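On clarity, I found the account of how folds are encoded harder to follow than it need be. Since the whole study asks how a given chain folds, the encoding of that fold should be made plain. For illustration, here is how one protein appears when written out as sequence plus structure tokens:

:::
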Amino acid sequence: MTSDTRAACIVGWPVGHSRSPLIHNYWLKHYGIAGEYRREAVPPGEFAAFVKNLAARGYAGANITLPHKEAALKLSQPDDRAEAVGAANTLWLDGGSLRSTNTDVEGFLDNLDACAPHWDRDLQAAVVVGAGGAARAVVYGLVLRGAARIVVVNRTVERAEALRRRFGERVHPVGWDERNGQLADAGLMVNATTLGMEHEDKFALDIGRLPGHALVADLVYVPLLTPLLTAARARGLRTAEGLGMLLHQAVRGFTLWFGKKPDVTEELRALVEADLTASTGPSAGIS
């Protein structure tokens, strides 16, 4: 690597499943930027030392995936989004400081904007299924866009209640048995769990109760077309798939590290779709 070549990486344990190198190296080639994007498999016990020495390793920054996102938050100077979500997935060097953000928030929002323009106009109610890290990013994004009522459905209602404590009174936690009763007024429903992934349980919600104008989003992208999205399209509802979120969440990191805001194009989407379809190994099926 020459001195004028910038580099970034994705850090995880394991990390072999990640499509981030495919996405970022596509953009580097497309825009003619002298740069490299690599995988770095780093076990938890070595993570702190690794990120503290990013510059010495030749990196301008890094994406962070499981199981390191919460540790990355503690080891960096987080922005408001990372603080709110409680996890960092993007690091960059700013002078002598290691800064962080969580791009799942904008990845989720930008994907919905692309799939269903003006989806957030007068959004009175949204239903979010799940209460983990992905759900925190979704709920925070909906708070930013002014959703009046955000129902969080989770099998363990205590975890849903934690999101209310984190994000305020617009969040309404409900248990799994109450899930279908929340759909009639929902302009948006989001699956932020692994339900619907290959080898996981099927998604057990009665989307026939959703209003005809509703938008259905699934963060799962393996398979590309989940049972939830298949059912929503059969009803004629608008949909947003998880692959779009994966692509849109990558934009900010690339901009920070390589100085160019990239476009999410059909060519890039087709490249990643082909890789997902061809892959027979383990996959990270949710952003």
